[in-house]
Fold this sequence. Notes:
The protein is mostly beta strands.
Amino acid sequence: MKKIVLSTLLAAVLPLTVHAANWSYSGDTGVETWGEKYPVCELGENQSPINITKAHNTHLEPLNIHYEGQVAKIVNNGHTIEGVVEGNNTLKLDGDVYTLKQVHFHTPSENHINGKTFPMEAHFVHQDAEGNLAVVAVMFQNGIRENDTLGKITTHLPASGKSVVPDGTLSPADLLPPYYATYYRYNGSLTTPPCSEGVRWLVIKDTQTASKDQISAMHAMMGKNARPIQDINARVIVGNR
């Protein structure tokens, strides 16, 4: 997989407020216009998100995730609600160590699975020493009970351009589903400008749940911040059981 120049990844691993005036999800700076300033968004052949269908079953090692740190603050950067992390949080993949940089959310989900969309999707964005990215995606479904971990975020959601400290200790590990050994993998891109490609996508099959009110609170603050589905083209999607 091709390497990505580190400078093109800042939009994914740092707060996105620097781009707030340059792009949005609708209107004059909406998705249809991204390619004018960020050509890869329009011309790229391996763009994300995708509809995951016809995945080839193969041997994939269980995800080697070690999140020992915590979410230090919650930021509303104008595009998403983002958890800024601190401490030792790593993903080992293909012999490389990726460090968790942040986790953010989309309502509704960006990736689809067999044509199904979910009310919310969390992206755990990791970066290795050479600047390559790996994103672990977790789908959220509406549940009967509140999600205690998500509640530490939704209790005090910051207004756009603001940040708050989570309501209590918040571990990024607790936002993962209890079982994450099975997942889909594909080669993709950032789902926001500059849409840089070469991103390793790992979409966990098992889901998390949160109450409808919690997900509605996230949506009310972020709006619809899901990029439309992109063409798969010649890519191969793999998964394990």
